[in-house]
Amino acid sequence: VEPKVIKEAGLDINYLQWSDVLKLNAGNAKFGYQQIAELEDAFKVAPNIHHQIHIKGKHPQTISVLLNKLKEQSNFTITSFDLQILKQIKQINNAIKVGWIVKPKQEKGNEGVTDLTAQVMANPDALPIYSSDEQNDIIKQAKRTNIEIVILCAPRIKDRTVIDFVKKNNMQCGAWGVGTNLTIAKKLTHYGIDRFTIDNPEELDRKD
């Protein structure tokens, strides 16, 4: 669920009840009203697709409930901005594949209540390229937590250097924060990124 949807409903992501979630509209102008789907339904509808499950907020029961629901599944990756959440998952089951979504400046707080994609896409050219020190620090933290996928802030990937560096350290490299920016999406593809999220994938494949 997008942070703005939760915020508009006056809900706190850390104290969500399923009865409240069911009332949210997960649709948009194109698809109209859409009720939030349960995790089990998502796997039933798309059994052959690899699912990326993004943990938001700090509800104390999230990890235990989620892992219990995933016992019979294998085609998924769990992602989060919070390294501590990913560390807990690895301590429970090191075989689970996890991805670290790296904040623009690795800043603390506001995840789950702020639309970070809208924030970084407001002026993507103003964001600096990843420095060597930042790259080394990211890899150091990722290795310490047994991360398989490092998911970087897309507007900060100005060339393929950081992508190659992540891969050189035996991790997949992904990106977030593309939004609907096809220029950035095409650059990421050209740079050889392993994965990224985009709001308008149907336009990315379109031949004008």
TrEMBL record:
<feature type="domain" description="GP-PDE">
    <location>
        <begin position="61"/>
        <end position="202"/>
    </location>
</feature>
<dbReference type="GO" id="GO:0006629">
    <property type="term" value="P:lipid metabolic process"/>
</dbReference>
<dbReference type="GO" id="GO:0008081">
    <property type="term" value="F:phosphoric diester hydrolase activity"/>
</dbReference>
<protein>
    <recommendedName>
        <fullName>GP-PDE domain-containing protein</fullName>
    </recommendedName>
</protein>
<dbReference type="Pfam" id="PF03009">
    <property type="entry name" value="GDPD"/>
</dbReference>
<dbReference type="InterPro" id="IPR030395">
    <property type="entry name" value="GP_PDE_dom"/>
</dbReference>
<dbReference type="InterPro" id="IPR017946">
    <property type="entry name" value="PLC-like_Pdiesterase_TIM-brl"/>
</dbReference>
